[in-house]
Design a protein that fits this description.
365 residues, alpha/beta, Chorismate Mutase Domain, subunit A, D-Maltodextrin-Binding Protein, domain 2, 15 strands
Length: 365
């Protein structure tokens, strides 16, 4: 046996031993998670017990990223822990996560990125259906898109918060990569029609103009639907992501065709309960102000005076009357923070209505 074979054999024996230790520790963690579930059930008999704690999970993932010694990156290590926690949580009670479907959309990818792959993901046809599924208790949480870095806010999601009692429990940001996809039987020169969601077509407009000018572009309800059609209709292609390509067995004719390489979509996690402070949080509110001079100043000035940073402000028509508006505001901090509480108290005195949508950990992954 050569020196190389000897050294490789020793290293493989070490890896086998380390793998056994990893497995033993994961099993020990899983048993501890089961004990957590038993304690919660024992001390909360007959109550709707929430096993998933967003603030606790965010704290664990942040600690993993901060204390990771390498050589794996902090983000890669956190993703591994995310899946371990997902599997352990499923032992307590498998979670049903509603998302804007169908299967294979970027919203499903965001749901799996946030909750891990050990959840039951439930595709629904519309954003309001996701809200209803969570409100009814049929799903533990929902995942809906709220803004894209190139196309702006998703107004339907904002409008749903005006009528829903659900809380925002978390956020996740997903880098969006679009590919030109077709079935193995479709030759590139035969493509006469390209399907995709209208927003995806807009995000790839320059590339399509330069590389597929003259080919008909047909907007459909989702990128997954575009991929399904491309898999069934000869002479067609789809602009969609990796999940849709894998789901429908499509080949990649061109990759990463989005016009902006930093194209990112932010998704919100919606649920029925409030989330405690994690130490690095964001809050969202809806505010309807009286229609009078200086109303916007009165709304924003307390944030400046108390040193609270706004991250987003949007205006939406109010359902209560013509030319009345509601402000959707994201800001840093938790509503339990003393300074935030002072700001909200001041706003509440001047506002027609102040709706607290929730405080939640700033996205870790």
């Amino acid at each position: 046996m050569s020196d190389e074979q000897t050294k490789l054999g020793e290293l493989r024996d070490r890896i086998d031993g380390i793998d056994q230790q990893i497995m033993d520790l994961i099993c020990a963690r899983a048993r501890c998670a089961q004990e957590v579930a038993e304690v919660k059930m024992t001390y909360n008999p007959g109550q709707d017990v929430f096993f998933y704690r967003p603030e606790r999970e965010a704290q664990v993932l942040r600690r993993v990223m901060e204390e990771n010694p390498g050589p794996l990156s902090g983000e890669e290590m956190a993703r591994l822990f995310r899946e371990i926690m997902s599997a352990c949580l499923a032992l307590e009670k498998p979670m049903h996560i509603a998302f804007l479907g169908p299967a294979g959309t970027f919203t499903q990818a965001a749901a799996l990125k946030h909750f891990g792959h050990s959840v039951v993901s439930v595709p629904l046809a519309a954003i309001d259906a996701v809200f209803r599924e969570v409100e009814s208790g049929a799903a533990h949480y929902g995942v809906v898109p709220v803004e894209n870095s190139t196309e702006g806010m998703i107004n339907h999601t904002l409008d749903m918060f005006m009528q829903s009692s659900l809380k925002i429990c978390g956020e996740v940001q997903l880098r969006i990569h679009h590919h030109l996809l077709a079935s193995a039987e479709t030759r590139e020169g035969e493509i006469r029609r390209i399907y995709s969601h209208q927003q995806s077509l807009a995000q790839c407009r320059q590339w399509l103009d330069a590389n597929r000018y003259g080919i008909e572009r047909v907007p459909v309800s989702s990128n997954a639907e575009a991929a399904r059609r491309a898999s069934e209709e000869p002479g067609t292609a789809a602009v969609a992501g990796d999940m849709a390509a894998e789901l429908y067995g499509l080949e990649k004719l061109a990759g990463n065709i989005e016009d902006r390489p930093d194209n990112t979509t932010r998704f919100l996690i919606i649920g029925r309960e409030e989330v405690g402070p994690s130490g690095h949080d964001k809050s969202s509110i809806l505010v309807s102000m009286r229609n009078k001079p200086g109303a916007l100043y009165q709304l924003l000035e307390p944030f400046h005076r108390h040193g609270i940073s706004l991250t987003r402000i949007e205006t939406r028509p109010s359902p209560s009357g013509t030319w009345a508006y509601v402000f959707y505001i994201d800001f840093e901090g938790h509503m339990d923070d003393p300074q935030v509480a002072k700001v909200l108290a001041e706003i509440d005195e001047e506002a027609v209505e102040l709706k607290r949508l929730g405080s939640y950990p700033i996205g870790v992954l």
